[in-house]
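Batch job 17 of 40 flagged for manual review because the log was empty.
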Amino acid sequence: MLIIFGSSLGDYLKDPSSSANLAVALMLLLAIVILAKVLKLDVYGAIVKILDSIVYRIGLIISNKENKLKRELEIGKINDKNKTVKLYRFMNDLIIDLGIKRSGVTPYSFTFLVLLGSLILSVVVCKAAFGSLTLSIIVYPIITVAVVCVLYTKANMAHDLRIEAVIEAENIISNSIKDGVVVSIRNSIDLIPEMVRAEFRDFLDNVEHKNYHIRTALLELNNNIGSIADDFIKKCIEFETQEEHGIVGMFRDVVELNNVKKELRTEMKRSFEKIFGDFVIGALMIFVFLGGTLVLFDNVANFYFNNIVGQIIIIIDVLIVIGEFVFITYLRAKEL
């Protein structure tokens, strides 16, 4: 990669106009440094302050968008069928499965980081591998999709385990819910799977120490453990707010349905293990064939690496393989 980059830089400097532009830029930079020294200006400190200001403003915009969405959702201005809400909940599930939710990462901030990281990656890849910054404009959306696919695949592996943990937690709570959701969770907190136990501890803390209303605390719990528990949380809210006689019986249905889900998921996993094995073998055969072709035929290698059409074809081919892999993991981790 360094050799390719060095070669591209050498070609750039051979152009007289490019060399002149570079020289002017260096002279301007040198003049700024000398002026800062003479006037005793803290250039580094100024740059840090500017960057801090930019980061602060971006963070403020992100925070305002988060608060606005939550407020509109809470007052009923928008609902779960809204496209923005669906995307927000998808990103929320993603950061939970990636294990970064408890670090303070939010769906909006995560989206911003993905877009920024994809932009940097596009510029680096196109300049280092193909020696072209112009190509990064075309490649950027493709790289962004690829990054999301990779993250989504990693998240799906954890999502599968989280579904099972949430199902087990729902069964434990449902079996002792007659005295209320809070009492049931408090008495069985040590039995709840460790993967989601911290979220249920936060729920108890919100109700018992922060004086959250039970509905608000349950919605916060739903946000922290993800959309997997949507139906269960709605039943809990109904149970706590309506207090109708016999309503506790619906939690017996929750346990029975969850047991059926467990059996189906076990059968599904066996099927997808075979499908995944076939996919890996097929992908390896394709890459071995393509690699051999590029090594044996120089004209083919030249087309793929030195022609913009060939470069885009390579990127799209890789994206298709990644997409197929993501789809398989998505089906495996999909909630029944």
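Reviewer: the log was empty due to a logging misconfiguration, but the result itself is present. The first helix runs from residue 2 to 14. Unflagging and moving on to job 18.
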